[in-house]
Write a structure and sequence with these properties.
alpha/beta, 7-stranded mixed beta sheet, 4-stranded antiparallel beta sheet, globular
Length: 339
């Protein structure tokens, strides 16, 4: 029953297929630090257009992309707002404070999973105070919201939050590591989810098969500053076109994400039938409430089902490298193991 492991740990475990490996092997390359790698330039141009931004910069990781954006937007000691459980708060080792110099503050999810209401945002921004009070200068949004179970923020809600931020003079950064999932789930182009932001990051290794790579996008002036910050952080690479070629192929895989969303809904429904506390997912992430997280993960492991903790729950992530029968197989193992 458990001879074949079922890997629901993350959609970052997806691997390059033959088509992607061939594109990497055949990529035209040069020196990207000097600025002459044609394949990275092609990716940056296409990514910027897809995200609805004037320019984009390739980075080795989404964490670096976010850190670059926060470093450009924040001055040391500035306060920034992010939703509870946001990746920039909980999964980037405090770099927003330690390296970008920002003072984080939390927005609760009072409008639904992963998103605050405009009223809460307005109250959290507050009014300018005396010189010795914190300056709030940046809002960080996340779409989809990982810790909220891959929850999406629709364009109209995004627009209202951005409007409040802009009224108060804040910049807006969107962590769009899984913006491709959000766009597919909502049936809109990715650019519809970036309207009004000053910067956006997006990742090519979240379920799309690329082994490495993200972008951070914004104005031409922003990307000029971002390029200097990337070099400062050690993110400049030479013949990076080999990696950018994989990211270009990954963009062609975005349409396949809808299938993983359907698999996630089937898994959630099956877990609910077995008494697990789950909500219907927006995208490809299923969060399950359990009485004891450690015990549950160990028990799943004994059944050959690999999963990880997230926000105090068991996280199952559906992705393209799972076999088509993985959901049914997992549910059968859970049913048999519970007897």
């Amino acid at each position: 029953m458990t001879s074949t492991p079922l890997d629901f740990r993350s959609d970052t475990v997806t691997r390059p297929d033959r088509r992607m490996r061939a594109a990497m092997a055949e990529a035209e390359v040069d020196d990207n630090v000097i600025g002459t790698d044609p394949t990275i330039a092609q990716l940056e141009e296409r990514a910027a257009a897809t995200l609805g931004m004037p320019a984009a910069l390739w980075t080795p990781s989404g964490t670096m992309a976010n850190l670059i954006a926060l470093s450009v937007h924040l001055k040391r000691g500035d306060r920034f707002l992010a939703t509870r459980g946001a990746h920039v708060l909980t999964n980037e080792l405090g770099s927003a404070a330690w390296l970008a110099g920002g003072m984080p503050d939390i927005l609760e999810h009072d409008a639904g999973p992963g998103r605050p209401t405009p009223e809460l945002l307005r109250a959290s921004i507050g009014n300018p105070g005396p010189y010795f009070t914190l300056r709030t200068t940046l809002l960080c949004l996340e779409n989809t919201h990982n810790a909220a179970g891959g929850a999406v923020t629709p364009p109209e809600e995004h627009a209202r939050l951005v409007a409040v931020a802009k009224e108060a003079g804040l910049n807006v950064h969107l962590d769009g590591a899984r913006i491709w999932h959000a766009a597919v789930a909502l049936g809109v182009p990715p650019a519809a989810l970036t309207v009004g932001v000053d910067s956006v990051s997006a990742c090519f290794s979240k379920g799309l098969g690329a082994p490495v790579g993200s972008v951070v996008a914004g104005s031409v002036e922003f990307v000029e500053q971002a390029r200097r910050m990337r070099q400062m952080l050690g993110g400049g690479v030479r013949q990076g076109g080999i990696l950018a070629a994989a990211c270009l192929v990954a963009l062609e895989n975005v349409g396949e994400l809808a299938e993983t969303h359907e698999h996630a809904r089937r898994l959630a429904a099956g877990l609910a039938e077995h008494g697990w506390g789950v909500a219907t997912p927006d995208t490809n992430i299923v969060l399950a409430e359990v009485p004891d997280l450690g015990v549950a993960l160990e028990w799943l492991g004994s059944l050959g089902i690999q999963a990880l903790p997230m926000a105090g729950k068991v996280r199952f992530v559906l992705h393209r490298d799972l076999e088509p029968t993985a959901v049914e197989d997992a549910l059968q193992r859970i049913k048999a193991g519970a007897r």
